[in-house]
Amino acid sequence: MLESFKPTWMVKTVYDLSPAQLKAEGIRAVFSDLDNTLIAWNNPDGTPELHQWMDELHRFGIPLIVISNNSADRVGRAVEPLHLPFVARSLKPLSWGINNARKRLGLNKHEVVMVGDQLMTDVMAAHRAGVRSVLVKPIISTDKWVTWPNRFMGNMIMKELQRRYPDMKWQEELHG
Question: Which end is more exposed in the chain, N or C (fewer Cβ atoms within 10 Å of the end residue's Cβ)?
Answer without folding.
Answer: N
